[in-house]
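Fig. S4 source data, part A: sequence.
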Amino acid sequence: MYSFMGGGLFCAGVGNRLLIVSTATDYWMQYRLSNNYMHQGLWRYCMPAKCFTHTDSIAYWDATRAFMILSLLACFLGIIIGIMAFIHYSSFDRFDKTFAAECLQLVVACFFVFLAMSVYTGVTINYYGKRYGNWRFSWSYIIGWVSVVLTFFSGIFYMCAYRMHECPRSSNPQ
């Protein structure tokens, strides 16, 4: 059980750090305009000499931002509850912390980051793919998809730990 809990905590910790980096950085997309390479993130866009804050309230940016922030919060709570389960913090006796960490990681955090990445991907491909030829997704975007995978696997590890805790194998087979 502890190896699964450790794997879940590791994946959740790395996934949460990658979510923070992906959400905060400005390299979700790079494109070329007037022979200059520019890049943009969720919060601002940058030209060769200066960066500017997104002032337009575009629905897909707002949705992506909101889902990324919600997934960060859920992942952080999943890590805290996972640590409490790992060290047997017993202030909540009837509250199964392993199951709660599994739900937060697998269902909530993974779902929200998947929604954020899917919304951004779909709108970007449909908009930029039809209008501009010289653009590409960049490293912040790729890190966001890696965090989807890590939050998914942390939930799977927590689920395995919960199943082992719920149904332990008997040491005396008969």
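Fig. S4 source data, part B ends here. The helical segments are 2-24, 59-86, 97-131, 139-166.
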